[in-house]
Write a structure and sequence with these properties.
CATH superfamily of the largest domain: Vaccinia Virus protein VP39
Number of strands: 13
CATH topology of the largest domain: Rossmann fold
Number of helices: 17
Mean pLDDT: 88
């Protein structure tokens, strides 16, 4: 296909970063000695590169029909250069928005949510342990000190959440989407709360159950295997955290999710929602099909909304936003830490996955995660997506203090309490 080869040659010359291409015939295109070369087994995959369909190109890499020669960090420089130029976020048309709402409604029943969560988090506990920190905190770290290791920054993040919520001994605390129990156990160990966590992942449920038993915390720490909509406590909680959860909720269920947070929280109580948000005001998808790639291979059913959309919906549910913080660069660094850790032990990672799935599938999953971690690191670094912590209160008009009448909660309306 001389025309396709000529198109690729032109595209390579126009790129702001060097890229090599090896055709199925063995012929090489692009400048010599480049950090990254894409080796194609089929011309159809080459057409995805020519058309700028990056999500489809990612599919080809996952299946092994296209191979990456070079590091993930260097590859992401190429991906950034290939991505759509105007802000990387494509504003959806009216038809696309309607289609998205129907898709969201169909993909976020209780059964589908459980299936989608388990397809991601139940891949293998041991696989995640290879590249997460020792507490297996699978969310944005907080590099309070730039010299912190990932493990230190994750503990700093857990403490930041506890401090923002002003957790006190004996308070009833719930963690919606508790993961492998990092926040749940940290709040119990260091703040003396009575803690409840919920998850839809059986692997995570079993892991946290073992932690609780090993530390003898069964009297005041518990983990439940249930949907957030089905949690019905005997009395509402004093404090609530939801970390990395609302990305899975779906636009169709966002108001239900926010109303559930309020239902679970006593009047005057405080909640913290920590989650990934869209960069575009119209909840725009990242261009080039990159968002579609993540939904297909990593987070089925995942949907992002802009922080303004999130705050509006939380307000509709009756919660009051009292503080919001953007931790976007922290997540870029977190993801690079995860990516580098995975890249440093690829053979072990593939062997670990192969213990729970066929070897061919293990190889595909590993390739997908390599692209996902590095691609998300680049996306946060470049501002294509963001990460916000939103601190909320369930207003109680009877609550206040002598120095802050009308506070409607225990929140002091001064940030200094977090850092003392």
């Amino acid at each position: 296909m001389p025309a396709l080869e000529a198109l690729i040659e032109t595209k390579l010359q126009q790129l702001s970063v060097p890229l090599g291409v090896r055709l199925p015939s063995g012929k090489r295109l692009g400048p010599p000695g480049v950090p990254v070369t894409l080796a194609f087994d089929h011309m159809s995959a080459l057409a995805q590169l020519a058309a700028g369909r990056l999500g489809r190109l990612g599919d080809e890499i996952v299946t092994g029909r296209t191979r990456v020669e070079g590091s993930m960090r260097d590859l992401m420089q190429v991906v950034a250069a290939l991505a759509p130029a105007e802000g990387q976020a494509l504003r959806p048309s009216l038809w696309q928005r309607l289609k998205s709402r129907v898709h969201s409604a169909l993909h976020h029943s209780r059964a589908r949510d459980a299936e989608q969560i388990r397809s991601h988090y139940d891949v293998s506990n041991e696989f995640y342990a290879l590249w997460l920190d020792p507490l297996r905190v699978y969310s944005c770290a907080y590099f309070r000190d730039p010299q912190m290791s990932l493990a230190q920054a994750q503990e700093a993040k857990l403490d930041l959440i506890c401090r923002k919520l002003d957790l006190r001994p004996g308070e009833r605390f719930v963690d919606i989407g508790a993961g492998w129990g990092g926040l749940l156990m940290h709040a119990a160990r260091h703040y003396g709360v009575d803690a409840t966590g919920i998850t839809l992942s059986r692997n995570q449920f079993e892991h946290v159950s073992r932690l609780i038993e090993a530390e003898g915390l069964g009297e005041r720490v518990r983990i439940r295997l249930c949907d957030y909509r089905d949690l019905r406590p005997e009395q509402p909680f004093d404090k609530l955290a939801s970390v990395g959860m609302f990305e899975h909720v779906g636009r169709a269920n966002m108001l239900t999710y926010c109303e559930t947070l309020r239902r679970l929280l006593k009047p005057g109580g405080m909640a913290l929602n920590h989650g990934i948000t869209a960069a575009g005001l119209d909840d725009a998808m990242v261009g080039g099909g990159l968002g579609d790639f993540i939904e297909k291979h990593i987070f089925p059913g995942g949907e992002l909304i802009h922080v303004s959309h999130a705050i509006r919906t939380l307000s509709q549910a009756g919660l009051e936003m009292v503080d919001t913080e953007n931790l976007r660069p922290h997540y870029a660094r977190t993801l690079w830490c995860w990516s580098d850790a995975l890249e440093s032990q690829l053979p072990q990672a593939e062997q670990t996955l192969a213990r729970s799935m066929p070897p061919s599938r293990a190889a595909e999953v590993l390739r997908a995660y390599r692209l996902y971690l590095a691609g998300c690191a680049m996306a946060f670094e470049r501002g294509w997506v963001a990460l916000h912590q939103i601190l909320l209160i369930n207003p109680d008009p009877a609550r206040g203090s002598e120095d802050m009448p009308g506070a409607h909660s225990g929140y002091p309306f001064r940030r200094d309490y977090i850092y003392r």
